[in-house]
Predict the 3D structure of the following.
Amino acid sequence: MLLAKWGALYDDSTAKSMSGEPCADEFMVHLLQRMYGWSEAEALKMNIRELISEKQRPEALDMVQRLARAEILEPYRAQRLAKDGRIVEVWLTATALINDTGETYAIATTERGAMKGD
């Protein structure tokens, strides 16, 4: 399944981004810690599904399937589960990464903390 492991995380103010590759960079892991409260050891072993509530998993799977078909998605509001059990409201922008043969090989996302009234 695409988006199975944490990938490249980078800070863009309060944003971070993920792709389908395993995360190994300490700076990238630090961002996962800061936004969701996971330790470095936990972050390196995590699967994206661990951040998605049971209620939102069908919607998340639908989004992954649409991206696998290289559909363009509008940014949407999502919820993530923090280590301490909090629900973190985020705006999520997802993009399919396409190889030379036109196939989706990964999904990159940017998640920004949503403010009340967004």
